[in-house]
Amino acid sequence: MPEQLTAPIIYDDGLLERDLGEWQGQHMADIKKDKNYHEILHQFTQLAPVGGESALTCGERIYQALKSLAQRYQNKNLLVIFHGEALRCSLAKLGNISTGNAYQLFDNGCLLQLTYAHNNRFQLIH
User: Fold this and answer.
1) How far apart are CA 86 and CA 69, in angstroms?
2) Based on CB atoms within 10 Å of each CB, which residue in 4, 18, 30, 57 is the most buried?
């Protein structure tokens, strides 16, 4: 029988998936027709879909949420789970910028390890 975690579950709205505005729930084939598709979902810029959140804004939001959790739970191991686009934006905020979209960059259930030094710096360990 698999081991079960007994740690408390904490929900943090700062770690929600990127808000894609009018693109939310649409088929990728339809989204790709937008002239800004590549910049919005492949780059780390301020451009956002109509009614949605930019990659820069998403990355900053997630960074602040992770920082708050790291400061609140010093010297603890945390398991943070979120979707691929949020992961792409947060890694770009940490300096790991790529030009692929989240579907190309991350396998389902991929694990990445970060450390947080309490001088306000995260480090991706892979």
Assistant:
1) 16
2) 18
